[in-house]
Amino acid sequence: MAAGRGGGRPWWRLRASVAVVALLLASAGGSAGEPRSRVQVLGGSNWSLVLQGQWMVEFYAPWCPACQQIELTWESFAKESEHLDITVGKVDITQEPGLSGRFFVTTLPTIYHAKDGVFRRYRGSRTLEDLQGYVSERKWEAVEPVAGWKSPSSIMMHGMAGLFHLSGWIRQIHSYLTGTLGIHVWISYAVFVLATLLIGLILGLILVLISDCLCPSKSRYRVETSEEVIEKENVENAALEEPEEAAELSADDVEETAEVKDLSDGEDAANSSADDLEEDLALAKESEEEEETEDLSEQPLADSEIESSAWECSITAVLLKDVSSN
Known about the structure:
- Keywords: Disulfide bond, Electron transport, Endoplasmic reticulum, Membrane, Phosphoprotein, Redox-active center, Signal, Transmembrane, Transmembrane helix, Transport.
- With about 325 residues, the chain is of the alpha/beta class.
- The chain has helices at about 1-5, 10-35, 65-70, 70-80, 80-85, 95-100, 130-135, 155-180, 185-215, 225-325, and strands spanning about 40, 55-60, 85-90, 110-115, 120.
- The longest helix is centred in the C-terminal third of the chain and has 100 residues, at about 225-325.
């Protein structure tokens, strides 16, 4: 008994070893009994596989009821993929927000058909028969493919994937601040607002520096050459001489205006004197004409007086003759 205690293994170690072996066997037997899924899980690292060959890809979320309803159908569809010469995949948008942005997923579940990098949105029924007929009967050829600028491999959708990655990263930081650190929600929002403003200022400064490097502005103060200095002095001298010439010209103009004024005054005086002489001559002529008319009017009066005086003399003579006869 002593030898058994000293040389043998403790009973509790033996029981632990048996338990571990039993768990390993149970896990191995369970994994061997479960059917292996043929649906290929896609993520940000291997999504480019859909650019080659023919694929049917489902975008889902674990909390989506509609996604849960078609889960078994999608697994059955994947089992028939070998006969249809197609690969069936799925993307969990809660784990891969970048891929949901790259494929511009707005509803759940969303199913895409891909053929050598050409993508088409599947909008048919989600039954197994319809999914198989869509591929076997090549119904996807009648569907208009996604436009080039909206294709998941385009530059624009690369940017969209980056934005969705950023939103997921911000969500994780917000959850860490409010959940783990216990910071109030509004304080977390204020932190994000300040960070956004700071990042905007930094990006603006970087853009200004890049623009200055690519298109440098002309210097306001540059070294002047000797020719430019001489030309500048000539311009200044010309600017100083112009007021003097203007003053001289103004004095000459004043003298000329004075002479013109004197000449005009002399002409006005001469004209006025000539007008006065003409008026005097006219008055003298009028006075002469009046005198002549007066003389003419007085001349008949003198004749009439002579005749009356002759009548008076004859009458007087007759009277005297009568008196003498008496």
